[in-house]
Specification:
Elements: E1 14-19, H1 22-33, E2 37-39, E3 45-51, H2 54-66, E4 70-73, E5 86-90, E6 93-97, H3 104-117, H4 122-139, H5 143-154, H6 169-178, E7 186-192, H7 202-210, E8 213-216, H8 221-224, E9 232-235, E10 247-253
Parallel strand pairs: 1-2, 1-3, 3-4, 7-10, 8-9, 8-10
Antiparallel strand pairs: 5-6
Helix pairs in contact: 4-6
Protein name: precorrin-2 dehydrogenase
Pathway: Porphyrin-containing compound metabolism; siroheme biosynthesis; sirohydrochlorin from precorrin-2: step 1/1
EC number: 1.3.1.76
């Protein structure tokens, strides 16, 4: 990962904007849409956008950086402390696509595909899930139970599939709670034929993304990175006799004939 993606709360914060013209206007709209206030005074800001060209852009960026601001310079990724991604807005769900400054056109093309893929109801679904999370602990006291509950509801074709329109999220959540059962150990074995995660099937990727525990025998880091960040990872030569509760995945290598 070349850059760390962050979502910053700009509500009520001042952001420096230098320059005029269409590019500066676009940055102003972006800042204001996120709740920020545009200023030219760097003493009250932490972020700055520079929409200037040539030596003026370099001088302004250098001066702002000396004052401790993080700077974005339009069309100059070499001068940027941070980059603005292509954005799919389904607030509070925000999808950001970045290419590290390599190609804004590529990021735009990906955004257009995702715009068509993600339903307009996704934001409302997120708000309903957020409203129900606190009360869920009364029914499902452990983090593992709650994680499994949401995983099951949001798998492809499930009642809260995020890529499909959802009529009544609360009704779906209530129905799932009424039928919830204790976790039992389950296991998915994945035979690795290469070190390339792109060779994993969709079914295998889905299992990795949902697993509570990943057992592996020298699995490559690129494969392990497809698992949940909070999943337990254990390097083993053989599987333990007693599996932990929830979903476990066992990664092992095979040689192609």
């Amino acid at each position: 990962m070349d850059r760390l993606p962050l979502f910053i709360d700009l509500a009520g914060r001042e952001v420096v904007l230098l320059g005029t013209g269409p590019a500066a206007d676009a940055k102003r709209r972006l800042i204001e849409a996120a709740g920020g206030r545009v200023t030219t005074d760097p003493s009250s800001a932490q972020l700055a956008f520079v929409s200037l060209t040539g030596d003026a852009a370099e001088a302004a960026a250098s001066d702002l950086k000396r004052q401790g601001l993080l700077v974005n310079v339009v069309d100059r990724p070499d001068l940027c402390d941070f980059l603005i991604p292509a954005i799919v807005d389904r607030s509070p769900v925000i999808v950001a696509i970045g290419t590290g400054g390599a190609s804004a056109t590529l990021a735009k093309a990906l955004r257009e595909r995702l715009e068509a893929l993600l339903p307009a109801s996704l934001g409302d679904l997120a708000r309903r899930i957020g409203a129900r999370r606190r009360g869920l602990a009364e029914h499902l006291p452990t983090p593992e139970q709650r994680r499994r509950f949401w995983d099951d509801l949001m798998t492809p074709g499930a009642p809260l599939d995020p890529l499909a329109p959802v009529g009544d999220p609360d009704a779906a959540i209530d129905a799932a709670l009424a039928g919830d059962a204790e976790a039992v150990p389950s296991l998915v074995s994945i035979a690795l034929t290469s070190d390339d995660p792109d060779d994993l099937t969709l079914r295998q990727l889905r299992a990795l993304s949902r697993a509570d525990t990943v057992f592996h025998a020298n699995a490559p880091a690129a494969i392990l990175d497809r698992a949940r960040r909070d999943a337990v990872r254990e390097k083993v030569t053989t599987l333990p006799e007693a599996l932990p509760a929830g979903l476990s995945v066992f990664l092992y290598r095979i040689d192609r004939a």
